[in-house]
């Protein structure tokens, strides 16, 4: 069966789709899995051996162009994990016999199977809702998948070369302080600085600060803030897959709930993550796809004594990584 899976939004959202995609492939290895994704996720998708074909949804192209690309794949059934009118109508035009999607928005009229999930109730995590949708196609499909879900044979080599090039002898703790507007809560830069300086006092771990390719100003600002300190500053210009390999070998990844957090968990890195103090943006909804025992979640109060108390708890957690 040729199966189309649509998740054409941000990095973290795409990663929450990967368990469902993996399970669809594992249910029957003869299934051809085609994904419709945003351009920024192509390199990561190519690293997944359970994805057979990729349709890159360039939003500037017409819905008729997208429909033609879908039709070329002779799709038997589709599972749309995140829907909008454009992708719904494109599948309708491509005449896919069975189309499964959440029963939300006006776009649902174009699908053959509309599933009521009420994700706003947050009965489960985003990736679990995605698996639930995939099971509409194969009700007997298994729901367990390997941890980590994505591994690279050359990851240790990449990590070792990075350590040599940066004269690193200790285990690396990564702080990713940016978030690209995709998170509802984060520490302030002053709060991050406090955590990092406390960790530096231990002299047990190498601190690395990572930044996305569009965060050069933040990268330079943090270099100035920590001038003279033994910190490695990494501006991610080597691509998403290289970054995934690098962080897969690190001791801990500290960040807000953004795409890089999901990436770290995907490749098996322990995470310490900040979430907004609301159900919709909570860890209950946005916990990562990796081993839950390797995830530390903190729901951040906006301000006041509760926030300071939580910051103390986070500092203690970093002091007792072992």
What do you see in this structure?
It is a single chain. The chain is of the alpha/beta class and about 325 residues long. It has helices spanning about 10-25, 40-45, 65-70, 85-95, 125-135, 155-165, 190-200, 215-225, 240-245, 260-265, 285, 305-320; strands spanning about 1-5, 30-35, 55, 75-80, 100, 115, 170-175, 205-210, 230-235, 250-255, 270-275, 295-300. It folds into two domains: about 1-135, 3-Layer(aba) Sandwich (Rossmann fold); about 155-320, Rossmann fold. Strands 3-2-1-4-5-6 form a six-stranded parallel beta sheet, sandwiched between helices. Helix 10 (about 260-265) links the parallel strand 10 (about 250-255) and strand 11. Helix 3 crosses helix 4 and helix 7 (about 190-200) packs parallel to helix 12. The longest helix is centred in the N-terminal third of the chain and has 17 residues, at about 10-25. The model has no long low-confidence stretch (mean pLDDT about 95).
């Amino acid at each position: 069966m040729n199966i189309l899976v649509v998740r054409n939004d941000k990095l973290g959202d795409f990663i929450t789709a990967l368990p469902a995609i993996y399970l669809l492939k594992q249910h029957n290895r003869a299934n051809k899995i085609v994904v419709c994704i945003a351009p920024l996720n192509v390199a990561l998708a190519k690293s997944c051996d359970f994805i057979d074909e990729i349709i890159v949804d360039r939003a500037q192209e017409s819905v008729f162009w997208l429909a033609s690309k879908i039709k070329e794949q002779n799709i038997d059934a589709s599972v749309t994990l995140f829907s909008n009118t454009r992708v719904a109508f494109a599948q309708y035009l491509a005449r896919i016999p069975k189309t499964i999607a959440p029963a939300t928005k006006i776009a649902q009229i174009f699908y053959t199977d509309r599933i009521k999930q009420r994700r706003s109730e947050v009965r489960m995590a985003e990736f679990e809702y995605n698996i639930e949708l995939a099971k509409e196609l194969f009700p007997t499909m298994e729901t367990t998948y390997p941890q980590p879900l994505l591994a690279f044979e050359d990851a240790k080599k990449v990590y070792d070369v990075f350590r040599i090039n940066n004269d690193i002898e200790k285990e690396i703790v990564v702080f990713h302080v940016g978030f690209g507007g995709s998170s509802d809560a984060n520490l302030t830069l002053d709060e991050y600085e406090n955590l990092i300086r406390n960790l530096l006092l231990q002299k047990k771990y190498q601190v690395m600060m990572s930044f996305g390719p569009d965060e050069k100003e933040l990268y330079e600002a943090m270099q100035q803030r920590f001038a003279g300190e033994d910190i490695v500053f990494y501006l991610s210009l080597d691509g998403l897959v290289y970054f995934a390999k690098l962080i897969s070998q690190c001791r801990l990844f500290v960040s807000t709930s953004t795409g890089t957090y999901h990436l770290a968990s995907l490749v098996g890195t322990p995470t310490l993550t900040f979430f907004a103090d609301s159900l919709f943006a909570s860890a209950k909804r946005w916990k990562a796809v990796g081993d839950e025992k390797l995830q530390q979640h903190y729901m951040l109060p906006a301000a006041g004594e509760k926030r300071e108390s939580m910051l103390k708890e986070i500092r203690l957690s970093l002091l007792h990584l072992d």
